Amino acid sequence: MANQTVRVNLERPLFVLLRILVALLLSSSMLAQAGTPPRVVRVGIYTNAPKIYFDGQGQANGILVDVLRAIAAAEGWELRFVGCEWARCLAAASAGDIDLLPDVAWSEERSRILDFHQVPALFSWSQIYRRTDVPLNAMTDTTGKRIAVLSGSIQQNFFTEMAKNFGMKPQLVPVASVEDGFDLVERGGADAVVASKYAGTLYAPSRGIVETPIMFQPVRLFYASGKGRNAALLAAIDRRLDAWQRDPDSDYFGILEHWQTRSMLAQVPAYIWWGALLVIAMLAMAVATAAWLRKQVAHKTGALRESEQRLATILDSVDGLIYIKDTSYRYAYANRALEALVEGRIGDIIGKQDTDLFAPPVAAALHRNDVRAIAKRERVVAEETVPDRHGRQMTVLSTKIPLHRDDGSVYGLCGISIDISERRAAEESTRVAASVFRSAEGMFIAGPDRRIQRVNEAFCAMTGHEATDLAGAFVPWFALGSDGADARDIMWDAAENHGKWQGEIWTHRKNGDAYPARLTVTAVRDENASISHFVGTQGDITEQKLAQDEIAKLAYFDSLTGLPNRRLLLERLGHCVSLRERSGQMPALLFFDLDNFKDFNDLHGHQLGDQLLRQVGERIRTCTRAGDTVARLGGDEFVVLLDNVGRTEQEAGAHASAIGWKIIAAVAEPFIIGSTTHRTTCSLGAALQSDSGIDSDEMMKRADMAMYSAKKDGRNTMRFFDPGMASDVSHRLALEEEIRTSLGTSGFSMHYQPQVDVQGRITGAEALLRWNSPKRGAIGPSVFIPIAEASGLIVPLGRWALHTACAQLACWKSQPGLRDLTVSVNVSIRQFRERSFVQDVVDTVSDTGVSPSKLKLELTETVLIDDVDDTIEKMRQLKELGVNFSLDDFGTGYSSLSYLKRLPINQLKIDRSFVRDILTNPNDASIARSIVALSQALGLGIIAEGVETEEQRNFLAEIGCSFYQGYLFGRPMEAASFERSVRAQDD
Q: C-alpha angle 455/456/458, rounded to 5°?
């Protein structure tokens, strides 16, 4: 209770008066709360010890259960634990049958059905545990192994995908709980089990099961709730976890220490326990006598301390801000709510004024009301605005009362401020909703009985009905086709069961005229998840339907997919192009093919390839309008003709872009081909007839060029044609020829960017290639390196760069102050895969006379997952020579930790993408910490690139990174300039 004790810098009689005043201020709310039963929170419990499980007495237990009990005690909740298997627990949480489900890792898929709080409750990672007789030390050993994994868990999905990426085929054995998995391995029913580190520490030793070096998927664990169901619970959990995790003496860390001790004690031999018990018994006898004496003293002071603590507990349990200020307007008391608001401890608040805690405008506004209470002796009730701990403006209703001595003089004020932001937000939402209701779209609001309560003017104009005619009536009759049956029940059932219904309908105006419309009906639920209203939006789509009906249906289709073929496509495209000038509407052409389809066809055969093409054709048709043309040109090439997409290029482009991205998303969904699941992507190019002079052939050519631009930009994306694409091919060929010509000339040069230690001293440099084209001037590496990679010129260019950097290093070898420098040289994967790579490095070191220990070769993570055995052998040979290795861009790809341990790497390099937002993005900060911790665990050096500010450098130093590279220390420069920088630090 030490952290809850409040010290008031006023005499004790006045503190008693404070209690009376606060009691008066809180009396109404306390009386209201006294009759309110505690919030009952239903908690799902499945077996995943030690984090969550039922113990031998049938009681809920575990790390996350104890943390939740501590939160419930602080919040006044009553916990009811519901036992269920993992899959049923997850379904119950989504359906709202339970309020909270502990031990849930966040994923994008789960976030669609569950809500999560923000502050992680626990951090963990996954590891594989095996029987001692099972050889399993790397992912390549998993093929054919029976591996138990929790059914339906993120571990199962991640491990399956990881095995697929490695080309391994383990036999997965789904289990209902992690303990079942360990039991199955012990009985011989499985060879290994995937489990969190917590579960492994608990279950593995007693079963003779050992851990493997295969670790993956660091995760953050949360309490989850059904989507949109328990925001208040999650907010309370966030509030408690945020406060506790910043306090090393909090209940949270006490629970973690308790369970960590339990996990270690579970492995202590029995004879040690008996010895320890004997010693404890002897100590207890000695301590008992001293305790009795101390008890007499403690009893005398206990009553007073208990009274103070009880008052502090009451005040800290109130959500409102409670505080006392003296006549100098300094804080003499603040409860936990105010402490959390300003993100400081009570000791940091006491004695300070509002100017020390808030921005000047906020402090000035608060001071004006304080003056009224103290100087003018008024009871002040006013709305005030203060920032919350996230920087958002919070509106509070403040009551401030002057505090009087017996002689009537004022010695301070007592204030209570209640957050009314939600009420203000609700009022604002009401005003916004009223504004939206006046939109050009037809809108109606219906009650849970499906009868219309309100309609807007646009709906009346569309239907021909008066608002008074529609009030209390049912939504007008409609069908899903021009001659279909009443479909209102279909719409209502879908809206009630799924929350929303949307579709095209046929309905009638008051005068009997039929017309098509697009109707969207959304169910609105109250805080009890009951439907309170239905909101409908309806738009007349008569003109759209008429445009679709104008498209003629011809009879030429592809025999494999049933889609229009090239001939029919060209006829329809020609028709659209010819109508451009008269209608003012421009068509769009989407040209795309499947990425890496040839590999699938070669691997699985043409029969399965044809099945894939048919399914792709079916999916594309679901993404387009009835009047659009989806055609297959041949092979894996498809074309979509979008007619009448807009009068302006902007309007047409937006329409085409929406359809294009919808197709990309649809193709990216898994395909069931025979008995296997296959994933693929597509690259899509789009062209618009933005000018009436563009004919069909030109549109086809433009769309084709745009598609190849999408492939060049990484595939699985969409690109619109622009005139620059027409010259891309010739420009690329010209650059390739210039690169070839510049090799061996002065066109290429090496620049050196400083690498410094924690004291800021330059210890080495990264050698970076630069090109000054005789025709075009300076050309950046991001332009010429990809061209060199694609053309194969990167191999001779890489040899030249390595030789030049080594020659410079040899030159520094004889110069005082420079001889101890190291130089890092980037090696491309294509250069590394050359058979002669090792010999090239050996020859370069020999020719230049450089010390191999001063040379550092930088490899990317891509090298590690491509022919690992060849990689290890080449690195081993060069390591024996004395050459060092640095793993560049670490963390941006994927590397097995077991392979990382096998590779003779000296250093990890934190990628600039993590450093850039390391101060503002918690994920980037966590990744950086993990990389540093991993390097320390493996005994590797660590360096961060892209360091541009002192704040970034200081943060990296605090987490253990002691070498840096970036603009903060120097840009890439010529060798002479670099030498001057090194010598200058000794001046």
A: 125
* Cα(538)–Cα(543) distance, integer angstroms: 15
Separation of alpha carbons 194 and 918, rounded Å: 31
Residues 669 and 630 sit within 8 Å (Cβ to Cβ) = no
pLDDT in tens, 757-770: 999 999 999 999 99
Strands (DSSP E) found in 693-847: 718-720, 748-757, 762-773, 777-779, 822-826
Rounded Cα distance between 858 and 860, Å, is 7
Cα-based distances in Å from 314 to 121, 317, 344, 660, 701: 26, 5, 20, 59, 76
- Do residues 382 and 294 make contact, with C-beta atoms less than 8 angstroms apart? no
User: How far, in Å, are 61, 91, 295, 411 from residue 858 at the CA level?
Assistant: 49, 48, 67, 69
Whether residue 213 contacts residue 897, with contact meaning beta carbons closer than 8 Å, is answered with yes
State both tokens at 279. Answer: 């010693």
The per-residue pLDDT for 405 is 87
Q: Quick one: tokens of 531?
A: 């439907």
Give DSSP secondary structure letters for 602-651.
HHH-HHHHHHHHHHHHHHHHHTS-TTSEEEEEETTEEEEEEEEEESSHHH
For residue 220, pLDDT over 70 is answered with: yes
From the list 586, 588, 610, the residue with the least C-alpha distance to 597 is 610
Q: What is the DSSP string of 653-671?
A: HHHHHHHHHHHHHHHHS-E
User: β-strands 146-150, 452-455: how paired?
Assistant: unpaired
429, 407 Cβ separation under 8 angstroms: no
What gap in Å lies between CA 801 and CA 799, rounded to an integer?
5
55 HSE (CA, 13 A, CB side): 10
**Helix or strand holding residue 365 (H, E):** helix 360-374
Identify the three-state secondary structure at position 369.
helix
- What is the C-alpha separation between 162 and 158, in angstroms, rounded? 6
**Angle CA 572–576–578, to nearest 5:** 115
The two three-digit tokens of residue 127, written as one number: 């590891």
**Confidence band (pLDDT; 50, 70, 90) for 28?**
very low
Q: Is the pLDDT of residue 842 over 70?
A: yes
Mean pLDDT of 963-984: 94
- Give the chain's mean pLDDT: 83
Strands (E) located in 15-121: 39-45, 53-54, 60-61, 77-83, 101-105, 114-116
- Beta strands 209-226 and 331-334 are unpaired
The structure tokens listed for 869 are 């055995």
Question: In this structure, are residues 803 and 844 in contact, taking their beta carbons and an 8 Å threshold?
Answer: yes
Q: pTM for this structure? A: 0.37
Buried (b) or exposed (e) across 746-785, using 16+ Cβ within 10 A? Answer: ebbebbbbbbbeeeeebebbbbbbbbebeeeeebeeeebb
Residue 578: predicted pLDDT:
82
